[in-house]
Design a protein that fits this description.
There is one protein chain. This protein is of the alpha+beta class. Helices cover 44% and strands 19% of the residues. The strands form two sheets. It has an eight-stranded antiparallel beta sheet. A two-stranded antiparallel sheet has the order 1-2. α3 packs antiparallel against α4. The protein is elongated.
């Protein structure tokens, strides 16, 4: 019975998301009540997004749409723990680097050279720890990006929307969605600007830095999103 209930719940969530998608278009103006540059408080107040975040990357945080699959709480906790470890390791690495001091002078004795070598080794070890933890974090960031593209949602940079991705099945007002060709995109959106043969952008009016971006793989539209390239997650 529990399994059946879970299956019904998942099906209901998927249907809600698809129904919501069919009622709105994804364009330079945003998606539904979500608008480029909107504050976190205003965006969450629209009711378009889940109440809790779906993962953090630096100063950025993901939120999924209402009705989308929720992230695993254990994964979120593990992400947070890893980021705290990286911050602590970086602090230790900075301290170890600062402790290296100047190189021993030409008249320094063996003890001074040995002490300097120990400080250099300690600094290298501390830096290596940061690198190893960062690699783990990068793997998790990639997984979050994949989930973001699969489910759609919003990424905030600090208090402002940095990125809006469409949920599955969404299209622009000119019926351009995943799987469209470059020719179809150009015909539907003649103001699109080609960055290369796989990437195209439409500037967002009155929102400096924001564009509606389209990325193609194998001649077919793979992803499209609203994003502000002037903001970072640092």
């Amino acid at each position: 019975m529990v399994a059946a209930f879970a299956a019904v719940s998942c099906s209901s969530g998927t249907q809600q998301q698809q129904a919501s998608t069919q009622e709105k278009y994804f364009d330079v103006t945003g998606f539904g009540k979500l608008k480029p540059g909107m504050s976190r408080q205003d965006a969450l107040a629209t009711g378009e997004l889940a109440a809790t975040g779906a993962g953090k990357t630096g100063t950025c945080e993901d939120y999924r749409y209402q009705g989308a699959p929720a992230p695993d709480p254990k994964e979120l906790a593990a992400d947070e723990e890893l980021e705290q470890k990286i911050a602590a390791a970086q602090k230790e690495a900075d301290a170890a680097k600062a402790a290296i001091g100047p190189e021993p002078g030409p008249n320094a004795g063996a003890a001074e050279y040995a002490a300097s070598a120990e400080r250099l080794a300690a600094s290298a070890e501390a830096s290596n720890k940061v690198v190893q933890l960062t690699v783990q974090s990068t793997d998790r960031i990639v997984k979050r990006a994949e989930a973001r593209e699969a489910n759609g949602g919003v990424m905030f940079a600090g208090d402002k929307i940095r990125m809006i991705l469409p949920p599955p099945g969404a299209t622009t007002s000119k019926n351009i969605g995943k799987g469209a060709t470059v020719d179809q995109l150009k015909a539907a959106h003649p103001n699109v600007v080609g960055k290369d043969d796989k990437t195209f952008e439409v500037p967002v009016p009155d929102q400096p830095g924001f564009v509606l971006g389209f990325s193609f793989v194998g001649g077919k539209l793979d992803t499209f999103m609203l994003f502000n390239g002037d903001t970072t997650c640092g």
